[in-house]
Each structure stands twice: as C-alpha cells, then as structure tokens.
C-alpha cells in the first residue's frame, strides 16, 4: 500500500486517482465523472440523488458520503441522522468536504448560510462534522450548523499548509456599506476551527466573489466591485501568508468584467496543479497568466488569450485530481477540458464539449486546492518489500536533487539519503511483521511524502539434528533427522558419505564412506518466504569410535529408582554392552536403550561400549555417567490461619516451603468446620505465593480447621498439620452493665508458645487497642465493665512467642442502651450522702446541658457537660423542674426533683 502526501496532502500519481477524496464528481442528471480511471469516465451513478452533489471518497475509490441541497447522505443514498442542513445557500454553492486534521475518519463540511440578495442580508459560514466510520461505515453527523462567520458574502475558499497539515479558510466579510469589505482568515487544526486569525483589506471593495487559493496556498485570487459603484470592477491577485493569514495585493489582473464578446459577468478563477498557471474564465473568454514569479510586471506581461469567440460559453471551472481543468457551459450540456494546464499559451490544449451530459447542474464541486497540488518533484519510497531477518534491502526510488528525511529511521543505515539500506536487527519475530517508513522531500513549496511497507518474515526455528556423531567406516543406512515443523521444507548436504533417501523431508538415510576426519551432516530449513536457518552435525568416521555418554536421569528420586531409562544414539550395525555399578540393567541389553533399577541412596555409575557387528576392530567406550539417588527433603508447614481484621468472612492462610518446588505443583487448601468430618477444597494456589485469603467463611458461626497438601519434586505427598481458627462469642448483661466472652484455643502452635490477648474498640473508635493479656489455660472472661461505651467490639489475638506470628479471632459486637435513671430527690444536708443532684451514667453522654427552673419558671441553675455538682445550696426546700439535653440522642429529658435539706 502506498500513501503519498500524508494525511490530507495526497500527491496523486498519473495512473490512478482511487485514493483521492474527490475521485467522483456528481454533476446532476444521475451522472458521475469518475476519476479512478484515466482519462476520467462519465458514467451513471448506481445509487444516490440525481441532483448535483459534492462527494468525499475513501482510499478504495468508493464514495464515502455526499452533500447536496437536501443535506448529508451516506454512499447508498440514505440521509444520515441529523443530516439536514437547516442553514444553507445553494443558489451560489460553495461547499468543501475536508478531513479534520489528524483524523482519518472525521470530515468537516463547510457551507454558507442563506443570503437574501433583495435586501442585502448576508448569510453566515457554517460547518458540520461527519464521522465516516460510524454505523458500520454508513456514517453519522456529529455536529451541524456550527457558526464560524455571521456575515460572509457567500464565497470562501480552503487550502492547506503543505508543511504541517493545517488548513486556511479565507473569505470576504462585510456589510452593504461601501468600502466595508475585508478578508478574514481562519486556521483549521487538529484542535478545531480557530476564531479569526487575521483580517486584511488588500483593495477597497463593496462586494467580493470567486475566492480561490492556489494549491501551495501562496496565492489568493478573487473578484471585487467598486465601493462607490455597484458595477463589477475586476480581479485581483494577492499574496497569502500561510504563517499569519494576511493578504497583500500584488496585481489587478482585469479592470473590468467584460468578456471577449463584450458581455458583463463574473470571472471564474482556477490554478493549475503546480500553482504556476492561473486561468480566468467567463462567458466566452479564457485567459491564462503565469504566476510562477512574484513580480507583478512579469505576471501581467504573461497574459495569454486562450479562447475568445462567440461560440460555446463557459460557466464554472475546477481543477481535477488528474491535473486537468474542467469547465461547464452555460447551457449545462457539456464539459470542456484544459488538457495540459501547466503549458503556456494555446498548447495548454483547451478541448471543447468533450463530456456531453444534458441536465447537468451548472456548478462543479469545490475542492480544497492543496489536495490537487502536483509537484514536479515526485517523492518515491519505492515498492513494498518482503525480507528475512538480517537481510539487507534498499528503499527509495530514483534520487533527485533534494533533501530527504526518512521516519522512523530504525534499522536504516541513514535517514537522510534517497536510497537507505534496511536491515532488520531487532528482537525475534514469530509472525510476519509490517514496518512502515515515510520519506519526506521538500520542493520549495510543500513537504511531499511517500510511504513504503517492509514486511519482515520470521526466521525458521533452528533445526536440531539427531543421529550418530561417530560411526565406523563404510557403515550404511545410518539415519539422521530433525523435528518436523509445519510449513518448512528441508535441504540436506552430506560430506563424507552418500544421501540415500529423504531429501526434502525431516529424516534422511546416509551411507558413510571410508575413514575421514571431517565428515558432516548439514540441513537448511526453508519457510514459505525462503527465509532459512542452518544446522550442521560433525560426524567422526573412524574405527576408534567416540561413543557418546549415555543420557538419562542423573539425580533420581529414591521412590523412582526402578525402571529408569538411559540411551545413546543408535548407529546402524552397532551392538552395545552396558556397564553398571550400584544398579542392575533390567531391559535392553545389547541395544542403545536400557532400563535400570538402582539400589538405594548414593552415587552410582553407568557406561557403554559400542562395537560394529561386521568389524571387531571398530569399537569405542563412553565416558561414565554418574547417577545420584536421593530422597527429597522438602517440607511444607502451615504457619498461621487468621480471621481478617476487616471482615469475619475472610481467613488468611500462610505457609512456608523449606525449598522451592520445580515441578509446577500447586497447593491444595482444605477447610472444614470444626467438628465436621468432611474436608472441602477451598482453593488450588501456586506454591510460591506463601499466603492465600479464603473468602468463603462465616467466622461468627464456626471455628474452622485448615490443612494444606501438595507433592514434592519426587512426586511424594506433603501434608501439613491441622490449624484451627479462634471463634469468639459474647453475652451482654445490660441489667448490671456487664458482659461475658468465651472462645476456643488456637490449634496448630504448641500451647506453651501461645499467648492470648483481649482487644477492644468502643463506639466510633477507628482501631482496636489492647484491653488486657489473657490466661493460657482459661478461655473465657466474665463481668467485663460495659460502662466504657454503647457499642463494644472485641477480638482475641493469639501470639506465637517463638516466631512472632499473630492470628486474630472473629469480631464480637455487643450493644448497650445505658438508659439514664434520674432520682426525684436529693438531700443537701452535709452528711456526704446524696448531697448533690447526681445522674448515674451521665458521663456516657459528655455533650449535655442541664437547666433547672423553680415553680415560677425562673431559671435557677444551668451547666453544660453537667458533672453532678448541683447542691441547691442557695435554694429552699421544694420541688424544682429540670430539662436535660443529650446531644448523642438529640433529645430532651424533662422531669422534677425535690430538694430536702
């Protein structure tokens, strides 16, 4: 896939314009001018409106959506939801469809609002935003009728900055007041449409029309009228500053609007694809200017009359994706074409009425000029390539005199040359991997880009040849093979022998020749992309065999000491005599594979002698294989089981292994309620975790027993001792403000190493605090004082004094109302008994206020946070009335009390 001129700057080749957003022109009369062919083909549309419309095509050349006077439509002719454009002017349509900078799916629709020419009421400039990928590719209108300018004349133009991908939107803005005309410019970036960036007044004017930016955005041309005379005046060519948006007049190209035949009408401007030629067209006249230099004198002197007669008359003209300029005639019956707009004078080749089509709209689509730019400098990243890892290939095309920049530059020998060398040296690839590279070249006007894809194919896995490394001279039928891999083919080469069979497969047979010091077996593995990997096996052809050391288990578990297999590579024509110490060969005597029963723990030995059957001189003895028979010492211990501090529905189990297990074993966590006989599998967990939280418990209701099981590296069972959790229960005695607690002992630690503690938190306390140590022999406490608060929370903590382990019980919560009982009499007579008005338990209600009144309602006492100190010393005997406010309950207690001295 080739993408040229990244994002919006699509530089088209001369062969196909399928990727151009304006690849289709809907001209009305159900006609489609199709630029995906060369030359463009006039054909009937298969779907959609019969009226004129502006289209936007995707990278495949299909119309993605189109816009006409009725609104915004999907490619199949269905109007998109929210697709009606309430404010529009199709009496003089200026309509642009532009990708939003930085996006490949969001598209702006810029259009003008209604203009009432009868009372000189100007319309506005608006935009809609379309997501072409929404609704499965049918598209969706995300925004519509978004106001940009409230008083645009109805003519505007759009072009881009070739360097950075932004757009400029330029148009005439003003009122009916003579001389009020000005030109405004808005920058369109990935962030959206900016407010006015610049205002310019290159010439005094009342009206301006026919705005057109050049493909490189450096020129702006438009028509204007005298501010004091509504008659048409002429066309003006201006410089446009792509950095600031400012417009500066360079030359007045025409001082009147009269055509060749003397008729008055508007000039229709258009630039060639390079931006070097400007054409002014109206009625029966076509004029060409050369604007390749900034000199006004040179530009005006380049004026050429291309066409002028009383024959066919012109209406609109528009540059096409193929670099030709198309124009409609006043009768709307045909299109004329300037075949070579870059050439000067008559050789530009104006051809009249070559696309007939009655019933067309007179209007041609408006296309952002930079999308049509055709540079003489064609950047070429070269054709797409497929390479193997480490293989070098050259990117790029024919070098030209320009500065090159490649991005990214990873795996390229240079990022600034026309033809860099690519060699993949990155991490291994396991599947075809696509890497994209973009070359950027600046032609002085625009930065042009081309893209190339390099597909890196994976290298086949390295083959491993198995077979005899040492053989007797003349031995025949010796087999060699590699593990066959899907999608690979194999090519074998033998030095010192003859390949008998198997070429192209994963297994071959070889007849070896006479004695040779450096015989080899070589295989090359090929994948479907012809990427290769090579393996070579050296073979010794000599009567003195170098018999290989037997292979098999060397550390052997004591419980697996019987039936252990040992092998050497089998060589055709050889017999094998095995030697052993510390065990007995059970099967396979005389062959290349045996089984052994080892005898007990310790170091044992095994070796083999190989001899050719046909040649008693050709033999060899292997090195000794030392085998250690051992017993696995691994132990598994259950360290602790603790109920969660934050939840009574969780139990955390922790354990320790004396050494890691290497056989991918998992630990089985078993659980049962204490007193039950049936174990349940609570979990299967990795041995390396060290702990597991069981969230399936109800610790308030049950004490739980846990144990763990697994298997060691010798596949022997390991099991821990049982641990039992602490379950705490409690009873509240509100009548005497006491409570009792009872719990069971923790099982799993030695009782002598276990210490218990009682922990408590009251009311709104955040954390538990130690209340008291507990006895190791008694598992209950009675008569705990409940006057510490209303909501009591208790836990038992067990501590292991040997290893600092800690476990917790479940939480017991006990509630007390602590209702106040207020006496109706007190005797302040100095006998130190009942001398003050005391209210038992009032200290539990610290935010309180006591107020006392006499029988006449006069306040005689008041105290916040009453301490029980009121004695009524200054009052006489009698009945008094109190009011006690308790903030905890947000209530008032009212009653009476008698003073009896």
From TrEMBL:
The record ties this protein, via InterPro entries, to: Ig-like_fold, PKD_6, T9SS_type_B
| Record's signal peptide | 1-18
Q: Which domain of life is it from?
A: Bacteria
Keywords noted in UniProt: Signal
Q: According to its UniProt record, what is one Pfam family this protein matches?
A: CHU_C
Q: Which residues form the PKD-like domain?
A: 462-538
Do you know which NCBIfam families this protein is assigned to?
Bac_Flav_CTERM (TIGR04131)
Q: Any idea what this protein is called?
A: Gliding motility-associated C-terminal domain-containing protein
């Amino acid at each position: 896939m080739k993408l040229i001129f990244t994002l919006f700057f699509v530089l088209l080749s001369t062969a196909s314009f399928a990727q151009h957003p304006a690849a289709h022109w809907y001209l009305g009369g159900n006609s489609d001018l199709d630029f995906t062919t060369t030359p463009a083909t006039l054909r009937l549309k298969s779907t959609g409106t019969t009226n004129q419309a502006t289209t936007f095509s995707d990278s495949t050349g299909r119309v993605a959506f189109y816009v006409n006077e009725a609104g915004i439509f999907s490619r199949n002719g269905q109007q998109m939801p929210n697709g009606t454009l309430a404010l529009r002017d199709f009496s003089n349509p200026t309509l642009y469809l532009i990708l939003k900078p930085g996006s490949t799916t969001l598209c702006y629709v810029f259009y003008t609002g209604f203009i009432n020419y009868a009372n000189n009421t100007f319309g506005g400039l608006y935009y809609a935003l379309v997501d072409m990928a929404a609704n499965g590719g049918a598209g969706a209108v995300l925004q519509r009728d978004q106001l940009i300018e409230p008083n645009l004349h109805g003519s505007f133009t759009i072009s881009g900055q070739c360097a950075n991908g932004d757009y400029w939107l330029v148009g005439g803005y003003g009122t009916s007041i003579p001389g009020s005309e000005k030109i405004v410019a808005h920058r369109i970036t990935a962030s959206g449409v900016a407010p006015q960036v610049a205002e310019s007044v290159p010439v005094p004017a009342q009206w301006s029309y026919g705005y057109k930016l050049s493909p490189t955005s450096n020129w702006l041309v438009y028509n204007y009228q005298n501010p004091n005379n509504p008659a048409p005046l002429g066309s003006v060519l201006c410089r446009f500053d792509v950095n600031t948006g400012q417009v500066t007049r360079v030359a007045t190209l025409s001082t009147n609007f009269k055509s060749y035949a003397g008729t008055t009408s508007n000039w229709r401007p258009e630039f060639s694809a390079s931006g070097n030629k400007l054409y002014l067209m109206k009625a029966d006249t076509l004029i060409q200017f050369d604007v390749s230099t900034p000199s006004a004198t040179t530009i005006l002197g380049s004026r050429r009359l291309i066409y002028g007669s009383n024959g066919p008359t012109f209406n609109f003209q528009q540059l096409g994706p193929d670099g030709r300029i198309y124009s409609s005639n006043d009768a709307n019956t045909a299109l004329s074409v300037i075949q070579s707009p870059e050439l000067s004078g008559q050789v530009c080749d104006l051809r009249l009425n070559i696309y007939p089509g009655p019933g067309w709209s007179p209007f041609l689509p408006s296309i952002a000029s930079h999308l049509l730019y055709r540079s003489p400098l064609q950047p070429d990243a070269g054709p797409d390539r497929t390479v193997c890892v480490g293989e070098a290939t050259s990117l790029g095309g024919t070098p030209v005199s320009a500065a090159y920049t490649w991005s990214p530059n990873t795996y390229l020998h240079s990022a600034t040359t026309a033809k860099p060398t690519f060699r993949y040296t990155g991490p291994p690839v396991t599947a075809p991997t696509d890497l994209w590279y973009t070359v950027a070249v600046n032609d002085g006007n625009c930065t042009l880009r081309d893209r190339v894809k390099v597909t890196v194919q994976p290298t086949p896995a390295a083959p491993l040849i198995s077979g005899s490394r040492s053989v007797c001279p003349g031995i025949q039928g010796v087999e060699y093979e590699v593990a066959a891999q899907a999608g690979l083919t194999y090519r074998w080469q033998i030095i010192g022998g003859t390949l008998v069979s198997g070429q192209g497969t994963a297994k071959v047979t070889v007849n070896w020749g006479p004695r040779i010091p450096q015989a080899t077996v070589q295989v090359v593995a090929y994948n479907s992309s012809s990427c290769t990997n090579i393996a070579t096996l050296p073979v010794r052809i000599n009567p003195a065999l170098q018999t290989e050391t037997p292979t098999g288990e060397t550390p052997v578990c004591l419980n697996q000491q019987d039936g252990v297999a040992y092998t050497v590579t089998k060589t055709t024509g050889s017999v094998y005599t095995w030697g052993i110490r510390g065990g007995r060969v059970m099967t396979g005597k005389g062959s290349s594979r045996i089984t052994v029963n080892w005898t007990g723990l310790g170091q044992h030995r095994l070796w083999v002698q190989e001899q050719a059957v046909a040649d008693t001189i050709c033999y060899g003895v292997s090195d000794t294989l030392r085998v250690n028979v051992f017993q696995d010492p691994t132990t598994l211990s259950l360290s602790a089981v603790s109920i969660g501090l934050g939840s009574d529905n969780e139990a955390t189990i922790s354990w320790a292994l004396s050494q890691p297990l290497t056989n991918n074993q998992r630990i089985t966590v078993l659980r049962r309620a204490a007193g039950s006989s049936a174990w349940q599998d609570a979990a299967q967990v990795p041995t390396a975790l060290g702990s597991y939280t069981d969230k399936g418990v109800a610790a308030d209701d049950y004490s739980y027993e846990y144990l763990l099981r697994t298997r060691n590296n010798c596949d022997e069972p390991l099991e821990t001792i049982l641990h039992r959790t602490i379950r705490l229960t409690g009873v509240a005695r509100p009548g005497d403000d006491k409570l009792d607690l009872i719990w069971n002992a923790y099982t799993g630690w030695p009782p002598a190493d276990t210490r218990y503690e009682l922990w408590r938190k009251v009311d709104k306390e955040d954390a538990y605090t130690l209340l008291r140590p507990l006895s190791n022999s008694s598992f209950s406490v009675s008569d705990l004082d409940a006057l510490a608060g209303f909501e009591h929370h208790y836990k038992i903590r067990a501590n292991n004094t040997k290893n600092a382990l800690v476990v917790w019980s479940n939480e017991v919560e006990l509630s007390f109302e602590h209702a106040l009982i207020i006496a109706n009499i007190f005797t302040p007579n100095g006998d130190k008994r009942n001398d003050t008005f005391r209210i038992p338990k009032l200290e539990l209600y610290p935010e309180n206020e006591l107020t006392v009144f006499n029988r006449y309602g006069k306040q005689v006492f008041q105290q916040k946070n009453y301490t029980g100190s009121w004695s009524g010393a200054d009052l006489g005997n009698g009945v008094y009335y109190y009011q006690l406010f308790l903030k905890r309950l947000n209530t008032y207690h009212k009653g009476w009390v008698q003073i009896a001295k």
